[in-house]
Design goal:
The chain has 160 residues and is of the alpha+beta class. It has one domain: 2-Layer Sandwich (Heat Shock Protein 90). It is 26% helix and 25% strand. The chain contains three helices and five strands. The chain has helices spanning 29-43, 50-67, 110-117, and strands at residues 17-24, 72-79, 83-90, 120-126, 133-141. It has a five-stranded antiparallel beta sheet with strand order 1-2-3-5-4, with helices on one face. β4 and β5 (133-141) form a beta hairpin. α2 runs antiparallel to α3 (110-117).
C-alpha cells in the first residue's frame, strides 16, 4: 500500500490590490488624480510613497491633458506589500521622447522628473499591430530601512 507524502501548502503570494481612478480630461484632472493617489496610498499603508506618487501622477496626467484628446483619463494602481505601480492611460499611441534633462525652458520636465523619482518607469501600447492607446507607468518601491515620511532626495544640479 502506497503512502502519500504530506507536503506543506505552497506559500500564499503577497497580496495585490488593483484600483482604477478616472477623471475627465480637464484643467483640474492632475490635481484630482494626484489627491486620489495620495489618499489611496495613505489608506493602504504606503505613506512613505505618497509624495513621490503624487508628483509622478501629476506630471503624467498633465502630459495627457496637454498632448492628447483623451476624453477621460484613467489611472490604474497596483498596490503590493512593498511597492506600487501606477499606469496613466491615453489615446495617443506614439512613443514618448527620452528625457534628456533640463532644457532651460518652462515646462517639458514631466518625464525628466518621473525618470529621476521613480524606481522604474516605461510605456506600453495597446491595440496590437495598429496601436490605439498607450500607458505610461511608474513604480515606486518602499525602502524598509527608511524612516516613515519618505525617501531622502538627492539634489540634482541643473545647468543654467
Amino acid at each position: 500500500m502506497a503512502t502519500a507524502l504530506q507536503l506543506p501548502a505552497p506559500p500564499e503570494p503577497p497580496p495585490v490590490s488593483n484600483y482604477r481612478l478616472s477623471a475627465e480630461n480637464s484643467e483640474t484632472a492632475a490635481a484630482v488624480l494626484r489627491d486620489l493617489i495620495g489618499a489611496l496610498l495613505r489608506t493602504t499603508g504606503h505613506e512613505a510613497l505618497v509624495d513621490d506618487a503624487r508628483l509622478c501622477t501629476s506630471e503624467l496626467v498633465t502630459n495627457v491633458h496637454r498632448h492628447t484628446a483623451t476624453r477621460v483619463i484613467h489611472v490604474d494602481v497596483e498596490v503590493h506589500e512593498r511597492h506600487v505601480t501606477v499606469w496613466v492611460h491615453d489615446d495617443r499611441p506614439s512613443p514618448l521622447p527620452i528625457p534628456q534633462g533640463f532644457a532651460g525652458t518652462a515646462g517639458g520636465l514631466g518625464l525628466f522628473i518621473v525618470d529621476r523619482i521613480a524606481d522604474a518607469w516605461g510605456t506600453s501600447r495597446a491595440g496590437g499591430l495598429t496601436p490605439r492607446a498607450k500607458a505610461v507607468w511608474f513604480r515606486l518601491v518602499e525602502d524598509p530601512l527608511q524612516p516613515a515620511g519618505g525617501r531622502q532626495l538627492t539634489p540634482v544640479q541643473l545647468d543654467p
